[in-house]
Amino acid sequence: MTTLGLIGAGNIGSAVAKAAIAQGWDVVLSNSRGPETLSDLVADLGPSARAATPAEAAEAADLAVVTIPLKAVGSVPVEPLAGKVVVDTNNYYPERDGKIDVLEDESTTTAELLQDHLPDSKVVKAFNHIGALDIEGHAKPSGSEGRRALAVAGDDAAGKEQVTSFIDSVGFDVVDLGPLAEGWRIQRDTPGYGPRLTADELKQKTDEAKRYRDL
Predict the structure, then answer these.
(1) Is residue 31 within 8 Å of 37, Cβ to Cβ?
(2) Which of 4, 5, 128, 161 has the smallest number of Cβ neighbours within 10 A?
(3) Which domains does the chain have, with CATH numbers?
(4) Nearest-CA neighbor of 194 among 164, 150, 163?
(5) How many Å apart are CA 160 and CA 132, to the nearest integer?
(6) CA–CA gap between residue 87 and residue 32 (Å, rounded)
(7) Do 63 and 75 touch, CB atoms closer than 8 A?
């Protein structure tokens, strides 16, 4: 893989783009407002970055990242992402996204909503429980003592392997939560959401997580 395509270019998207470029990736960024609004960010990221439409970013991607407000998931291009691995960084914030009944009753998860929208893609949950500044500030080389871990969840083993490799390359260990349905274990307000934790610590915190209905 050589090109990271980002659907969304906010704080998390920009931080992931910067981390990818540092590892030799080309990056294609997009947002809902148009490529021309990304000129300053592209200039900051350098010659390995360019701006495009969401459809163009999806088409160019060897690995795609969807990092937009959850309420906008229905706008993610479908056909250009068919067969591709798609990282979902989204979290559900009712005050921003509006009330989503299937998330309120916990009959599904945020990443499963994206997977339903992208039936021919391989969605992997990742980068949803780390702050944008920490993507650079907490990164360490593989094998470093106290290295922070990030969680992944996904239904496709090969897709998770690709995302795990990417996460390791940009400075983090990985804890595999299992299928997409287990992604709730790292959603907002769970013990593992936010703090800097090693792999063993993150595994413990995700094991301790409870559904909102059980709190």
Answers:
(1) yes
(2) 161
(3) 3-214 (3.40.50.720)
(4) 150
(5) 21
(6) 18
(7) no
**What is the C-alpha to C-alpha distance for residues 125 and 206, in angstroms, rounded to an integer?**
14
Among the listed residues 45, 62, 80, the one whose alpha carbon sits nearest the alpha carbon of residue 5? 62
Per the prediction, the chain carries an average pLDDT of: 97
Give the pair of three-digit tokens for residue 24: 């030799």
Entry pTM: 0.96
DSSP states of 66-116: E-S-GGGGGGS-SGGGTTSEEEE-----HHHH---HHHHTTSS-HHHHHHH
Residues in the chain: 215
pLDDT digits (tens, 9 = 90+) for 86-111: 999 999 999 999 999 999 999 999 99
Residue type, 79: E
User: Which phi and psi angles does 42 have, rounded to 5°?
Assistant: -60, -40
- Looking at the DSSP bridge assignments, the partners of residue 68 are none
